[in-house]
Design a protein that fits this description.
Structural class: mainly alpha
Number of helices: 17
Shape: globular
Largest sheet: none
Number of strands: 0
Distance between the termini: 38 Å
Low-confidence stretches: 219-236
Length: 418
């Protein structure tokens, strides 16, 4: 199809675009379910595995830092590969690399090798970056007024795998133990299978390539300002800055608090099954609201949803500092945390899409996702240090303050260039 477009009528172009968009969404949804299961393993037990192998709370934040550093490197590579060759090779290659990294983590746990553990987590981070970048593949052929909704469809499909994954911690642990592998490495067996399957599925299903077809069809124009108050069309680089800032802050706060919550819960003698349940609910809060969030962004604009993101992150910090250490308190804190991240990510994604053209979009998106991954690495690395120096409450309040302070900067950039 991609090579036979020629001089077709506008109506034919729309028919081709709509059909290809539907196929792209089906492929992305199918692989996001698998990708969600893969990313959940590192979130749930990565910190606990490092704490077990290295000892000490300060070390517990290192896996998230290494994983997100790998995610940053992969985001850059996937963005460049996608920009040059299309979404299919970039995304499928990223998922396959994540699967290889998950296998490495299992081997590292079996050999009790911290060096191999962190090297493997670096590669495993490729799956996290790819799972996040896949949301863009669902928007390449979407109409301008439906881009946020299209991105949210891709994200919400992550929920099933991401919620099921943490709740398989104990069964996968028992399976690992039967193979003479430390139980905490068990979820990474699931991650390896899920990421490898996602990579293969994308290579087979993502046809025609949505980004390459979008370029040929001329399906989108640059710079649709995605704000209900300013519906004009213009090129606006500040949109990239505002979108990046929104997503970076949400990622720092979310990663920092999420990373240390399993450690906090185990310090208060909660079972690993309870930890898995809390993380599963948190990931559901990160992804499940996406369909509603996308529609809200399309309707009320990115500025309003950025404020909503900051408000949810602020409430999460207050909840973490005041509700105590029960399972219910941890769940409430992480639900609000996931919701704030969801609002920020979809609003920021819409800003980036609106401020770029198809010819440059994948490269810019990859570069912004590098910043997001570095933000996550910073949040993960610092979270253990902050918690060791203060308390879990101190960590959550620090996240709330950061989210609150970032809002004026985003709003000023959006309003000055609206």
């Amino acid at each position: 199809m991609e090579s036979t477009l020629g001089n077709i009528t506008p109506n034919d172009r729309e028919v081709i675009r709509a059909a290809a968009q539907q196929r792209a969404l089906v492929a992305v949804v199918a692989t996001q379910v698998l990708g969600g299961a893969g990313l959940a393993a590192g979130v749930t037990v990565g910190a606990l595995l490092a704490e077990d192998m290295l000892g000490g709370d300060a070390a517990a934040g290192l896996p998230a830092a290494v994983l997100t550093l790998g995610s940053a490197i992969t985001a850059f590579i996937v963005g460049r590969v996608s920009n040059r060759y299309g979404r299919r090779p970039g995304l499928s290659g990223g998922f396959l690399a994540g699967g290889v990294g998950a296998i490495g983590v299992v081997v590292a746990a079996r050999l009790d090798s911290p060096a191999l553990l962190f090297a493997s987590l670096l590669v495993y981070g490729a799956g996290t970056a790819t799972n996040l970048q896949a949301r863009y593949a669902g928007t390449d052929l979407a109409p301008a007024h439906r881009r946020a909704t299209a991105a949210s469809v891709a994200m919400v499909s992550t929920t099933l795998g991401a919620v099921v994954g943490p709740n398989l911690v104990e069964p996968m642990g028992r399976l690992a133990n039967s193979w003479d592998i430390p139980p905490l490495a068990g979820p990474f067996i699931l991650a390896a299978a899920a990421y490898l399957a996602a990579g293969i599925a994308l290579a087979l299903l993502l046809r025609p390539d949505p980004l390459r077809l979008a370029r040929q069809l001329g399906a989108t124009e640059a710079g649709t300002v995605h704000d209900a108050a300013t519906p004009t069309i213009r090129r606006t680089r500040p949109g990239v800055v505002a979108g990046a800032l929104t997503m970076v802050v949400a990622q720092i706060v979310m990663t920092g608090v999420m990373t240390m919550t399993p450690v906090h819960m185990q310090m208060h003698h909660h079972a690993l099954s309870a930890v898995g349940m809390v993380i599963g609910v948190h990931i559901a809060a990160m992804y499940l609201p996406s369909l509603v969030t996308g529609a809200l962004v399309d309707r009320v604009g990115t500025t309003t949803m950025t404020v909503a993101s900051g408000a949810a992150l602020l409430l999460s910090g207050i909840a973490g500092a005041t509700l105590g250490a029960s399972v219910a308190a941890s769940m409430m804190t992480l639900i609000l945390l996931g919701l704030g991240w969801n609002f920020g990510l979809i609003a920021g994604t819409a800003m980036i899409i609106d401020a770029t053209t198809p010819d440059e979009r994948a490269k810019v998106q990859g570069s912004v996702d590098v910043l997001i991954a570095i933000a996550g690495a910073s949040g993960g690395a610092l979270s253990g240090i902050v918690m060791a120096a203060t308390t879990y409450s101190g960590l959550t309040i620090a996240g709330a303050v950061l989210a609150l302070l970032s809002l004026p900067a985003v709003i000023i950039v959006r309003r000055r260039h609206a």
